């Protein structure tokens, strides 16, 4: 792939790279991406810098980079991976706050919510038992809130309150949005801007965030895909461009 192709990297492709990086260094761990962009990212990571990553078809089969069956994953074995910290999920969030608490259940008071959403589902078990990152394709103050209306996924302050015995596998490596990448590398484990996607400014991120975000003096840009990675994304993993349906540029 030539240099001009690299220069034309889309926002969605930067998001794919940012999601893929969430699994860097995880080793032999089950990747559970939720959404088109995280799915493309997980498959890219497996094909490049994370060859030990385990992928599934979403049901009970372990699959390789080409989607071909590699093994069988019985439900009891899946639960063993979940509860033993051997899975890294990338979930979505209807709301997320400065400490990484996530809400996918309802908007408004629990007794009479303004909107009913998915429900708590597996978010507490995920966040207490294995690493969880987040993918948020529409960064706005309605999603990045000061305090979530209901805690589904457990954030750092809630994990501290629960105590070490309940949260020994609790880890939130990163939050990826259509504006940038965020982590919790601060003394109080509150959210920090780790990188900006090219074309995005710090002011844009601050305006789209409903809480005081830690912003370093020098914020790098999210790394660009290499020519080989870009070719894999466009020609092998996602030629149908499903990534573009989640990210508006």
Automatic annotation (TrEMBL):
Organism annotation: Streptomyces rubiginosohelvolus
Question: Which Pfam family would be a valid example here?
Answer: CoA_trans
Q: Which SUPFAM superfamilies match?
A: NagB/RpiA/CoA transferase-like
**Protein name, per record:** CoA-transferase subunit beta
Q: PANTHER family from the xrefs?
A: ACETATE COA-TRANSFERASE YDIF, CHOLESTEROL RING-CLEAVING HYDROLASE IPDB SUBUNIT
UniProt-listed Gene3D superfamilies: Glutaconate Coenzyme A-transferase (3.40.1080.10)
Which family does the record assign?
Belongs to the 3-oxoacid CoA-transferase subunit B family.
Lineage, opening ranks: Bacteria, Bacillati, Actinomycetota, Actinomycetes, Kitasatosporales
């Amino acid at each position: 792939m030539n240099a001009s192709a690299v220069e034309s990297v889309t926002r969605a492709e930067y998001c794919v790279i940012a999601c893929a990086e969430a699994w860097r260094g995880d080793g032999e761990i089950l990747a559970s991406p939720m959404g088109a962009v995280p799915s493309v990212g997980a498959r890219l990571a497996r094909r490049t810098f994370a060859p030990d990553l385990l992928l599934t078809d979403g049901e009970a089969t372990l699959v390789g980079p080409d989607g071909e069956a590699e093994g069988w994953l019985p439900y009891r074995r899946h639960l063993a991976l979940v509860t033993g910290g051997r899975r890294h999920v990338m979930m979505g969030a209807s709301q997320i706050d400065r400490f990484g608490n996530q809400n996918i259940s309802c908007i408004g008071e629990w007794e009479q919510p303004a909107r009913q959403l998915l429900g708590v589902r597996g978010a507490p078990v995920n966040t207490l038992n294995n690493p969880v990152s987040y993918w948020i394709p529409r960064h706005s103050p309605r999603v990045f809130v000061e305090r979530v209306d209901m805690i589904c996924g457990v954030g750092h302050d809630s994990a501290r309150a629960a105590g070490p015995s309940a949260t020994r596998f609790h880890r939130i490596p990163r939050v990826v949005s259509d504006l940038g990448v965020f982590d919790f590398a601060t003394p109080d484990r509150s959210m920090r801007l780790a990188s900006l996607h090219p074309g995005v400014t710090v002011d844009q991120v601050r305006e789209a965030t409903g809480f005081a975000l830690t912003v370093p003096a020098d914020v790098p840009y999210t790394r660009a895909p290499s020519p080989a990675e870009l070719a894999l994304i466009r020609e092998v993993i996602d030629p149908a461009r499903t990534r573009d349906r989640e990210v508006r540029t």
